Structure formats: C-alpha cells, structure tokens
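The authors assume throughout that readers already know how a fold can be written as discrete tokens. For illustration, here is how one protein appears when written out as sequence plus structure tokens:
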Amino acid sequence: MALKFDPPFENQYRKLLSDSALSCSSETTGECELPMIDLSNLWSEDEDRRINCAKEIAKASTEWGFFQVSNHGVSMKVLAEMRREQKRLFRLPFEKKSSSGILNGSYRWGTPTAASLKHFSWSEAFHVPLAKLAEEDCCNEEFNSLREVMEELASSMSDLARTLAGVLAENLGYRGDCFPENCDESTCFLRLNHYPPCPFLPETFGLVPHTDSDFLTILHQDQVGGLQLMKDSKWVAVRPNTDALIVNIGDLFQAWSNDVYRSVEHKVMANAKTERYSVAYFLCPSHDSMIGSCEEASPYKKFTFGEFRKQVQEDVKRNGQKVGLSRFLL
C-alpha cells in the first residue's frame, strides 16, 4: 500500500528518491555536546562572573561558531505554547498551508527545483518576517493564539540576540550598544520548522548543508536529534537539549568580525520514523545596511545585506546551493 505524504514530497521527488546513485550520505564522527553557557552569570553583580561569561561566549563563537545557553530569559512556558501551536499549524492539510495565505503566505516546503538529493530538503516551514505579524491579514481568527505566542517569543529572542551581539562586539573592543545597528522587528525573521518522517533513504537531508545569512540565529529544538555541524572538517551530531537554546554565528557576523567569529556549516538529517520540530529566530539588518567590518583592514569587500541576499539567491538558482561569503572576498 502506497504511503500518503502531506506535503506531497514523494510525488515531487520520486525520481530522486529512486536513484541510489544520488545518495547524499556523509559520515559523522559521533555525537557532541555544544559548549553550555549559563547566562545568569552575564547579569551577575559579581564582575568576575560577568567577565568570564562574556569570555565563554566569545571563545565558543570563535572555536565552534555554535553554543547553547541556559538561564537565557526566554520563558519555557512560551516555548511550550509555541510548540503546541506549531504542531496544530503543520497538521493542517497541505492545500490549506500552501494556498490559504496563513502567516502572509510564508509557507515553504521541500526544494521543488532540486536536481539531485544533495540539493533536496525533506522539510516544511513558515519563514515569517516579524514586521508581517502585526498586519491584519497575517492570521485569521483561527490562528490568533499562534500570532500572540509568536510575537511574545520573538520579543524575548530579540532581546537575547541583541544582548549576545553586544557581548561579542565588546569582546572586539566596541561598545555593546553600537551593535547590531538596523536590526529590529522590521528586519528580523521567525522560522517554524517541521521535519516529517522520511522512510525512503536513511541519509536524506531534512535541511541541506548551509551557513546562516544573518548576524545571529537562536534555535529551540525538540528532543529528536538531527542537527549536525562541521567541526574540525568532520560532521558531528548535536545532542538535543530541550531545556537550552542553541545560538550560532551567521555570515554577517563572521564578515563584520574579520573572521574572528565563525559562521559554521550545519545541516539537519531526516528521521525515518519520527517527526521533528524546531523554531529559529534570525537577527538580520535592513537590506540597505552596509556590513563592512569592525576594522579597516578586511578580507571582504563592503556589501549590503540586500546585495548578499541577492547573490545567495542567484547562486542557489544557478548551482543548487549557496556559496556565501567567499563571493565577497577581495
């Protein structure tokens, strides 16, 4: 009996999935635990604890490009409400998700342009500009509770992202309140992710290998593993921790810091039997913001965020994958 998929992944990718020569298999070297940073120390009255916490953040951003945080100030109750709303949203029929305009038509699924499995993501998402949440037609009455919890979560994650960005700027000798500029609710995004079970191939990407095209990303994932990152030229699986948030450096921060902080390639592997959920906040500037660098001498040309996004889109369309910062080297 044929399985029914919603979204209709199998119909779209039947040829790719039946061609074993296109396997995207990649070897992992076991499971890792990301550096854990207790952010309560960042707000401590003890100056030594504050300084040491800031050093831990900078060290992890330099050596890993990823870290996780506890006592982060984002309500676990709000995160639980977000997960409930997320499940309710993704369990809608595909036709309603894809054509009804929910969350301003921000629904995406799979990679319809993929010519091989290495460019193919077995996942669906709502990639929502925060500026759209306040618009009247963003959500109908059925999803008012979804909008409310998204707004509350985005506000908390925005505060956290700006705090961490300020710490990283200060580590490079700049005032924390001068960075990030032009990053607010009108420019940032919230992405709701769902990775359905994929019974076809054990090494199918839930999300293809990539780096993030922002300053900082804050991620909350469920207990289902799947996230992997590149560490010392090898793929390592990240042990899930639902009580912590994951933070990773994006391309813009790597360029701004003159490669002091690392935007690390990462991916999600699909699970054969179990669905996976996550929600991510992306700290982005306005499209006309000049990225530049924190010092005059830089390996990169100056570019705006809009120019960077446009180049990424052109590369994905032409090559099936992102090229990223190397496009902007001098």
Remarks:
- The first strand starts at residue 28 and ends at 32.
- Helices lie at 9-17, 47-63, 76-90, 94-99, 144-171, 251-256, 305-319.
- The mean pLDDT is 90.
- The radius of gyration is 20 Å.
